[in-house]
């Protein structure tokens, strides 16, 4: 870790264009501290496998959680939530109508939300739901490389000579490297920004070295722990915590801050655990204990 003397907790209103080096690190530290001080609510419509880890991770990061699957309940809760999270990991038949309606209402009401396009490319129902988000898109998409490549193709964002091809539909695990998804992620971030009420969006691609982009700036975030692939819900809970950060900061800063928090916390968890069970418990403890200075001092490589 480098020295932390750059940390200035006063709010910086600098735009991302003016952000580099220490200015970005200040915003990251600010986001980590703001979540802990403001305990923002990020509401989730998420899968049944990992719902408990998502809520616990949001609490451990300093936010609060509320899970719901009913459109009118979600639209009402969005009025008191700082941001929202939709994860399409496990689908039920009614989701095909409910999720497009929720995305439309969030868009109409100017609400921010994070999408985790789990298993994008698998199944007609999931494809129909994800395609419906093209016109009313999230503020941030967070997924593994294969999911970002599949969603980019589904939304038809590439020109004919710039198509990114994935290896095959990937289930919930990635079968592509993060680097294979760079152009898809950049295109997608520009699409999100174009449709976002604030004109800002971001895409986070997770893997051994995470990548975050707003379509103009692209950052690689190394580190973390390979043990993250040995528990279910590392990606889903990162999506939930990204929504928690989105409640207090702009999309690019939120996506970078959440990914860095996860990388630092998972490194600590690996040291303190003895296998997947204790790793998951240690990860929650580390999300709680890692300092804003540790997160902000992380290695950040701008492309
Ligand atoms: N090989 C790895 N080394 C370090 N961290 C990893 C590795 N694979 C995944 N991660 C981390 O695990 C978390 C979830 O990412 P990932 O496994 O790509 O998502 P998903 O579970 O959605 O496929 C992220 O914080 C990511 O940085
Ligand atoms: C195993 C599984 N099946 C449907 S959703 C899901 C959880 C995926 O979690 P993550 O993408 O965070 O590993
Ligand atoms: Mg996932």
UniProtKB/TrEMBL annotation:
Its cofactor is Mg(2+). It holds the Pfam family HK. It catalyses: 5-(2-hydroxyethyl)-4-methylthiazole + ATP = 4-methyl-5-(2-phosphooxyethyl)-thiazole + ADP + H(+). Pathway: Cofactor biosynthesis; thiamine diphosphate biosynthesis; 4-methyl-5-(2-phosphoethyl)-thiazole from 5-(2-hydroxyethyl)-4-methylthiazole: step 1/1. GO terms for biological process: thiamine biosynthetic process; thiamine diphosphate biosynthetic process. Keywords: ATP-binding, Kinase, Magnesium, Metal-binding, Nucleotide-binding, Thiamine biosynthesis, Transferase. ATP binds at residues 142, 206. GO terms for molecular function: ATP binding; hydroxyethylthiazole kinase activity; magnesium ion binding. Its EC number is 2.7.1.50. Substrate binds at residues 67, 233. InterPro entries: Hyethyz_kinase, Ribokinase-like. Belongs to the Thz kinase family. HAMAP family: Thz_kinase (MF_00228). Catalyzes the phosphorylation of the hydroxyl group of 4-methyl-5-beta-hydroxyethylthiazole (THZ). This is Hydroxyethylthiazole kinase. It comes from Bifidobacterium dentium (strain ATCC 27534 / DSM 20436 / JCM 1195 / Bd1). The lineage of its organism: Bacteria, Bacillati, Actinomycetota, Actinomycetes, Bifidobacteriales.
């Amino acid at each position: 870790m480098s020295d932390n003397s750059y940390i200035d907790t006063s709010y910086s209103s600098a735009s991302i264009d003016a952000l580099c080096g220490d200015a970005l690190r200040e915003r990251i530290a600010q986001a980590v501290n703001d979540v802990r001080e403001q305990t923002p609510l990020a509401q989730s419509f998420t899968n049944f496998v990992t719902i408990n880890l998502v809520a616990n991770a949001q609490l451990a990061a300093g936010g609060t959680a509320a899970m719901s699957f009913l459109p009118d309940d979600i639209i009402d809760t969005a009025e008191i939530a700082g941001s929202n999270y939709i994860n399409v990991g496990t689908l039920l038949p009614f989701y095909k109508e409910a999720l497009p309606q929720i995305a439309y209402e969030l868009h109409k009401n100017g609400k921010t939300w994070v999408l985790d396009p789990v298993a994008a490319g698998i199944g007609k129902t999931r494809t129909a739901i994800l395609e419906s988000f093209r016109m009313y898109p999230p503020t941030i998409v967070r997924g593994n490389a294969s999911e970002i490549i599949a969603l980019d193709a589904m939304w038809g964002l590439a020109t004919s000579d710039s198509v990114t091809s994935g290896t095959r539909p990937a289930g919930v695990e990635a079968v592509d490297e993060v680097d294979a998804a760079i152009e898809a992620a950049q295109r997608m971030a520009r699409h999100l920004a174009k449709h976002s009420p604030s004109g800002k969006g971001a895409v986070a691609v997770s893997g051994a070295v995470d990548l975050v982009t707003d379509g103009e700036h692209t950052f690689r975030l190394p580190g973390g722990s390979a043990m993250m692939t040995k528990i279910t819900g590392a990606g889903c809970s990162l999506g939930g915590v990204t929504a928690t950060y989105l409640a207090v900061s702009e999309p690019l800063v939120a996506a970078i801050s959440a990914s860095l928090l996860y990388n630092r916390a998972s490194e600590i968890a690996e040291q303190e655990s003895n296998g997947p069970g204790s790793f998951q418990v240690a990860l929650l403890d580390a999300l709680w204990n890692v300092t804003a200075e540790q997160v902000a001092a992380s290695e950040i490589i701008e492309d």
